[in-house]
Amino acid sequence: MWNVLLSFSGLLALIQLLFLPFFPESPPYLLLQKGDKAGCLKAMKQLWGEGNYHTEFDDMMKEKAVTKGTKIMNVLEVLKEPSVYPQLSTMLLLLLSLQFCGLSATANLQENIIPYVSLGVAISELVSIIFCSSIIDRFGRRILLWGGYLLMALILVLLETSLLLSDRFLWMRYCSVILIFLFLIAYGIGP
């Protein structure tokens, strides 16, 4: 019943993808990253209804002024920063815990290959985190969500097909593993 389970997450992704265009961008993103004051106020009204949001707007403007001189660090600079070690440790612990989720058994592989698949899952998650952290400021969350959900939907269709054909063609099991890696990368980049 793995195909039903994987299809369920695809259905949820499709529902979120359909409703995403009706939501505005995040007000802090519009103001702090894009510098769009009018768009920020419009997004606040869309999200929170009519009202006076000058206090929140002023707080964001203060944050923008405080962070104006702050240097944006790349991934390697962040890894060298001791103040982020607790957060990195938590993230690595979560990534390692995903190794026990049973995802490696999805493709119905031989037992001697499953440790390599688990290693591939961890590497896929790490790649997606590094890639996403590198491009999120450039593209924003909305585009990454759209792209991630679209890729996830496509990959789940392909994964379902490869799982159905894996009994006829043994090489399809390896395609399933590759699709699982791609699904994890798409999930890490998007949602």
Characterization of the model:
- This protein is mainly α.
- It has two domains: 1-71, no CATH class; 76-189, no CATH class.
- 73% of the residues lie in helices and 0% in strands.
- It contains nine helices and no strands.
- Helix 2 (27-33) packs antiparallel against helix 3 and helix 8 runs antiparallel to helix 9 (172-189).
- InterPro entries: GLUT, MFS_dom, MFS_sugar_transport-like, MFS_trans_sf.
- It is found in: Membrane.
- GO terms for molecular function: D-glucose transmembrane transporter activity.
- It is a multi-pass membrane protein.
Offer a few descriptive terms.
D-glucose transmembrane transporter activity; single chain; 191 residues; mainly alpha; 0% strand
Number of beta-strand segments: 0
Largest sheet: none
Tell me the helix content. Answer: over 70%
What pattern of helices and strands is seen along the backbone? HHHHHHHHH
What global shape is seen?
A: flat
Mean pLDDT: 78
In angstroms, what separates the terminal alpha carbons? 24 Å
Radius of gyration: 20 Å
Q: What is the multimeric organization of the chains shown? A: single chain
Low-confidence region ranges? none
Total discrete domains: 2
User: How much β-strand is present in the residues?
Assistant: under 5%
Instruction: State the secondary-structure class.
Output: mainly alpha
Helix tally equals: 9
